[in-house]
Write a structure and sequence with these properties.
The structure holds two protein chains of two kinds. Chain A is mainly alpha-helical. Chain A has two domains: about 30 residues, no CATH class; about 80 residues, Up-down Bundle (AhpD-like), CATH 1.20.1290. In chain A, α3 packs antiparallel against α4, α4 crosses α6 and α5 packs antiparallel against α6. The longest helix of chain A is centred in the C-terminal third of the chain and has 15 residues. By secondary structure, chain B is mainly α. Chain B is about 65% helix and about 5% strand. In chain B, the strands form two sheets. In chain B, strands 2-3-4-1-5 form a five-stranded parallel beta sheet. A two-stranded antiparallel sheet of chain B has the order 6-7. In chain B, α6 links the parallel β3 and β4. The longest helix of chain B has 18 residues. Chain B is globular. The chains are: A mainly alpha, B mainly alpha. The interface between A and B is medium-sized, with 36 and 33 residues.
Chain lengths: ~120, ~750
Amino acid sequence: MSQTARFQETLRRLAMIDEAFVEDQAGLRLGQATELVLDPKTAALLQLGVSVAIGSPAVCIEWSAGRALVAGATDDEIADVLLAIAPVAGLGRVVCAAPDVATALGYDVAAALDDPGDP
Amino acid sequence: MDETNVLESVRETGREGTPAAFDLVASKLRCPPTRPGTVPRSSLIDRLARFDSGPIVSVVAPAGYGKTTLLSQWAVRNGQGFAWVQVDERDNDPKVLLTYIAAALDAVQPLGGPVFDALASQASSVPGSVVPRLGSALASMTVPAVLVLDDVHLLHNSECRAALSVLADHVPAGSRLVLAGRAEPPLRVARLRAEGRITEIGPGDLLLTAEEATALLRDAKVALGHDEVAVLHQRTEGWPTGLYLAALYLREGGSVGNAAASFGGDDRLISAYFESEFLARISSRDREFLTRTAVLDRMYGPLCEAVLDLAGSAATLDHLVRSNLLLVPLDRRGRWHRYHHLFRDMLLGELHRREPELIPVLRRRAAGWCLRNDLPEEALEYSMAAGDAETAALLVERLVWATWKQARVVTVQRWLQWLGDRGALAARPMLLVWASIIASQTARPAAAERWADAVDHWQHGDAARPPDPAAEAWAAVLRAILCRRGVKQMRADADEAAWRFAAAGIMAPVTALCQGVARVLSGDTEAGDAFFEDAVSMRESGAPDALAEALSERALIAMARGEWSRAEVLAGQAGAVTGRAGIDDLLTTAVRARVASHRGDGPEARRELIAAQRIRPSLSYAQPHLAVQARIELTRAYLALDDMAGARTVMREIEEVLRRRPDLGTLVGETQALRTRLATERGSGGHEASSLTTAELRVLPMLATHLSGPEIAAELFLSPHTVKSQQLSLYRKLGAASRSQAIARARELGLLEG
C-alpha cells in the first residue's frame, strides 16, 4: 500500500467535508452555537438555504441537507427550503441545487426522470 | 438410474460432510484427466509453482492454447491441495458459483459451518455476508491450496465477478487463486501487477517451443525430419491446437505443406479446414453424429442415441472417444464426455449452416431424455435452449420451490424472467405467485407489485377460467403479505388463505402468521397472539423464517403488556431459530435490540442495531407491515440509546413505507406517537454511522469489490452522481478518507462481515 502524502490527505478530507478534520485543521466550527434561540432543526434548514443561495458546490448542499435530516427536518421541509428562498436567491440557484438536495434525500432525480415505470 | 446419473453429488464421491444446499455436479469439481502423450509443460509449471510467484495466477488465451492442459498437469504434479472448479454458464448465480468454490476448498480443508449457512440462505447478502465469510475462511486455511477456476470468461454476472476480486485479496501465503479463461479475469489487475501479486500467463507463454513441437509430433507417431518440423512449428507459431491438428492430418496422409498452410495460429483457418477437409472426409454418419450432438453440454451414449434418434450412436461415441482428440472425458468411468470448446463452437456453427431447423428438435429430444432419466433441471435448460416455453414452464413449476429453498435466487429469477419474456407465465398462476413472493423477499418491490397484478388479473380477469384451489390459496397469502389494500382486506385475505389451505388439508404456518398480524394491526392483540401461538405450534411444518417471525410477534405483544421477562425468553427463542438456520430476520433483530436496551445492556443493543443495519435494505414496502413493525422497534431502541441520528434515519424509512401503504392499522398510530416524540427532541447527537441510510447501506458492501463507482451505479440502477455522493456521505459518516479506510472502518463496526 502506498502512503498518502499530507497534501493528498488534506485535499481529500476537505473535498468530502470530513467534519472533525475541518474543525481541527481549518478552524471552522461546524457545530451549532448552543446559545441560539433557534432550535437545531430551524438552524440547519437556514444553513441549507444559505448554502443554496450562495451557490455552494454539490457536496456542501448534500452535507447541509443531511445535517438537517439528522436534526429532525422532514423531506418535505427540506424541499420547501428551495421554494422559500427562490424569490430572493433566484431560479438558477434553486434549480441547480435541486438534484443535490434530492440526492441527500435518497431520491435519484436523474434515474427517476429516466424510469419508464415511474408513475 | 445409477448408470445414467451424471449429477453425482459430492457426498457420493466421498466428500462427506460438505453441507452444500443443492446437489453438486461432481465432474465440475474434478480436474480433467490429462491425456496420455500430452506434451509436458514443465518449465511453465515450474514458473507457476515457484515459491515466490504471486498468490494470483491468471491464464488468459484464446481457445486451443492448452490452458486447461497446463493446469491439469500442474495438479497432477502437485498431487494434493488442488481445488478445481470448472465454470459454466449456470454458475452465473453467485450462490451457485460460491457453493462450488466453497465445496472445492472444503475438500482440501474443511471451511466450517458459517460459510455454508450463508450460502444456503436465500436471504443472506452475497457481498455483505457470503463473500466475507468465504474470504475469511480462505484466508485462515492452513493447508496450502491451489484454487483453479477454469473458463472464468463465462462469468458475466457482476456479483460473481465482484466476488472473485474480493476473494483474490484473501488468498493466504503459500496458496494460489488461478483464474483461467479467454479474457482478462475480473480483478484489479493493474493494482495486483504493481504490487507484484499476480503471475500472468498469456498466449505467448503457452506456445510450444520447437522441442515441445518435436515431442508432440513424435508422440502422435508422425515421423518427420528436422526441417519439416521446423516449417510446421514456424507456420503454426507453436499454437498447440494447430500442431495437434497438423499431427492428425499428417497421420491420415496429408502433406506437410498443406498442414503448414492450414493450421497457422488462427482459428479461422482451422474453421476453414474443418469445413473443407475434416468434415468432408469423414463418413456422413460420423459428420451427422458430430454436428448434431454438439447441441449437448455433456454427452453420454444413451443420451446421444435419444438425441439422434438413431440406434448405435452410443457405439459411435465410443469409437470417437477412442480415436480422436475432440472429446474431453468428464468422469473417471469414461461415460460422460464433452467436446473441446473450440470444436463444439465449430460443430455448432456447421449445424447452424447445414440443418438449422433441426436444432430445436435435437434439444427437445435431449430435454425428453433428461426428463425420463430424472434430470429435470438439465431438461429445463434444454427446453429453454429449444425455445419450448410450455415444457419449460411445467418444469419451472416443478423446480422453483426447491431451487429457491436452495438459495439459488438468481437462477430462479433467470427462469422466471425467461418465461415472462415469452408470455408463458400468464396462464401459470402458481408461478406468478412465486415470482411475486420472491421479488418481495429480495427487495424488488416494483417487480413484486407487477407480478401481483398479474395474479389478480388471472384470478378475476376471466370468469370462465378453470378453478385452481392451490393457486387461489397462495394468491390469498400473497395479497395478505403485500397488504396493498389496507388492513381490513389483509385480514380477509389471510382468513381466505387459511380456509383454502384447510380445505386442501394443508398445514401452513404462514397463514396463521398472516392472520395474527392482521389481528394485531386491527387492534385485536389477544386474537393475534392466539394465531401466533398456532404458527409456533406448527414449527415442524414451517420454514424457520415464519417461526422466528411468529416468536418475535409474540415477544412484541409481551412487551406491549409490560411482560419483559417473557419478551426476553421469546426473543431469545426467535434468535435461536434464526441462528440455527443461518438466516437474517429484521424483526427478530429489532426485537432483540429492544429487549437488550430495556435490560440496560447498551453494547448488546448496539450490536443488534448494527446487525439490523446490514439487513435493513432487504425489507422494503413489498412487506409493509414487517418493514414498519421492525423499524418502529429499531427507532425505539435508538431512542433508548439516545441516538437521535439513528432514530431519525430509521423514522424516515418508516415514512417512506407509509407513504406507499398508508393503511397499516395500529402501526399508523404508533408511528405518529414516535413522530411526536422525535419532534420534541432537540438533540441531533448519536453515532454518525447510525445515520447511514438504506441506500448507503446498499452501496457499502459493493465498495469491498473491484467495481468502480459507475459500475456500482449500473448494478443498482442509479446515476453515477448519486452513487458518488452516497459514497462520500458513507466516508464522512464512517470517518474515512478512502475506499479501503471505509471498508476497514465498516468491518471494525460490524457493518460488514469479514
